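Q: A reviewer asked whether we had any structural model of the full assembly, not just the individual parts. We don't, so I'm hoping you can provide one. Inputs are below.
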Amino acid sequence: MFQKILTSALFAGFCAGLIAAALQFMFVQPVLLHAELYEGGDLVHFGADAVSAHPELPGFDLLRDGLSILFSALIYVGYAFILVAAMGMAAERGADINARTGLLWGLGGFIAFHFAPGFSLPPEVPGVAAADVGERQLWWWGTVAATAIALALIAFGKSPIAWVAAVVLLLTPHVIGAPHPDTLAGSVPPEIASLFASRALGVGLAVWSVLGLLAGYFWQKESAEA
Amino acid sequence: MTALVQTAAKSTVLPFAAAIILGFGIVTLAGHVQAGALHDAAHDVRHATGFPCH
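A: Here is a predicted structure for the entire assembly that you could use as a starting point for your response.
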């Protein structure tokens, strides 16, 4: 069983991670590099002079971007382990796992790991003001856990009590609220920060969809061969 | 009924638990641990993936 999980998760996670890296280089990295010019003080928002919205950005950096490919693959392999394990447990209880249903699992993963935390703690561009990183991480994990349990209750719960509990779990992290800074001292223009947040979420949606689809596909393939 | 019970008995939680722990370990290491070198190496991906970074 563990070998089946391992194979499905490695294949699906690695493919998804490479796609994530490609989409990030195309759509997210230019926004990040642009923001870093403000973070580092090379550009100043609301200074004496108007600043061009189209500065020259550094090109492909072998070490920096190579590490990004590596860590992107690593993170999505990690996600894939969690996703495939959850799929496998559902399969043991009679759920149909294939590429089609995998897509739904992927969307669930996106909601739990990207969208729900991002709803109150939007993906941060470098240079924005933020609260203590430990507190944000704690809130992030709590939100991910509460949302994942809520989605499982919605999908597999059989009584109205389960669905009510799910709604409570979905809302609670956002009613409590994410840690935010006391003062807003971010140096990055809002145009860049908002583009970054929506791009990061969009890439997350695309990649999680692929991850779920591939995880379902490989799981079904491995099950057929076993 | 007997068949159902047998299937349930054969299945084990262990491989799933191991996979979940492994997954959380990888995500924590790559996405959350603040040690300097690790943070720098994973910096861009952490931002792009929506993790709280620094």
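A: Points you may want to mention in the reply: The longest helix of chain B spans residues 14-31. Chain B touches chain A at residues 11-12, 14-20, 22-27, 29-32, 34, 41-42, 44-54 (CB under 8 Å).
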